[in-house]
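hey m, so remember when u said the tokens were messed up on ur end? i reran from scratch. heres the input so u can diff it against urs
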Amino acid sequence: RARIRFTVPMLFALAFFFNFLIGGLYGVFLSDVPSDVTTHGSYFVMAHFHYTIMGGLVFAFFGAVYYWLPKMLGVTLNETLAKIHFWMMFVFFNLTFFPLFAAGFLDMPRRVSTYAPHLQVLNDFVSASAFMLGFSMLIFIANLVWSLVFARVPALANPWASRGLEWQLPTPVPTENFERIPVITSGPYEYGVAGAPPVADFTPAALPAAGS
């Protein structure tokens, strides 16, 4: 029976779906002519743009970094710092950009150096949240430097219990990946299946010699 494990890459993947869904739902307003007339030049567009681009692309990027870095560099990032990075980034991203939808409905235009007095509190809140969002990136950088330079905790060959062929390689990955072409003996999605065969057979008897 499949079970979702809330690892750091999974958290970023779920946040990607959440953020992109919000950006897409509010994008409907921009495709409707009557509502677009009043919102296309406002902070509403900024909120929509950042939810689809940063909320989608950047969160997916960090998920991929945390997923592949152990295999790429052979070290494990500190999980506690990684989760602090995720939760700060997720919370303050939403606290930064979700209020911009409201600012857009309140006629806050884009590309201006000042704003109406009644939007002062909202803009101050967004600015403070943006600084905290930026601080979350410093946590990622600190985690990366600490893990690569000082801690150097060796990464497991398959920390995600993946059945993908690339995760059957040792870490660090050998220069030629596989010495011989592996023989696939099982499907990639048989997670949690009792008695499931291994993904591939690496024994010399099962592997044809290179060029044969």
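this time it looks ok to me. The chain has two domains: 8-151, 161-212. if urs says something different then somethings off w ur setup not the seq
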